[in-house]
């Protein structure tokens, strides 16, 4: 739980243990879970990208290259790696390493980020009109 796996370690007929519903609305349900998840905005951006690059009907994972992900999300390499590591630890992504090429990333439904606090909007005071 919460570790990177090696793609060659699973059999080809064995599908990774990730969250897939029957039907065609998996992306919509996952987007709702991501939107309401107790995660930071950078983590939600990463998860949304992985979900967008996953083909749910064919059950093919996100296999975008590191540079492509960095450009699409405007993240540095260090930020990308730290966010990916955090999401793997929280079980939001099941990641399989492939030697010499990009990793395969499957979206999953994970746990809340420890210490996460929702921001409470401040009450605005009306300045009124000056006559």
Number of strands: 3
* Beta-strand share of residues: 5-15%
Q: What's the mean pLDDT score?
A: 77
Named CATH topology of the domain at 24-107: Arc Repressor Mutant, subunit A
The CATH homologous superfamily of the domain at 24-107 is named Winged helix-like DNA-binding domain superfamily/Winged helix DNA-binding domain
Structural class estimated from helices and strands: mainly alpha
Low-confidence stretches: none
Q: What would CATH call the class of the domain at 24-107? A: Mainly Alpha
Characterize the overall form.
elongated
Main β-sheet description: 3 strands, mixed
Distance between the termini: 65 Å
Query: For the largest beta sheet, what order do the strands appear in spatially?
Result: 1-2-3
Helix content: 25-40%
> What does the radius of gyration come to?
18 Å
| Sequence of secondary-structure elements | EHHHHEE
User: Judging by the overall fold, what is the CATH architecture of the domain at 24-107?
Assistant: Orthogonal Bundle
Counted by DSSP, the helix tally is: 4
Please give a handful of descriptors for the protein shown.
131 residues; 3 strands; Arc Repressor Mutant, subunit A; mainly alpha; 4 helices
Produce the secondary structure layout.
Layout lengths: L4 E2 L19 H11 L4 H13 L12 H8 L3 H13 L3 E5 L6 E4 L24
Parallel strand pairs: 1-2
Antiparallel strand pairs: 2-3
What this model shows, in words?
With 131 residues, the protein is mainly alpha-helical. It has a domain of 84 residues: Orthogonal Bundle (Arc Repressor Mutant, subunit A). It has four helices and three strands; from the N terminus they run βααααββ. A three-stranded mixed beta sheet has the order 1-2-3, with helices on one face. A hairpin with a 6-residue loop joins strand 2 and strand 3. The mean pLDDT is 77.
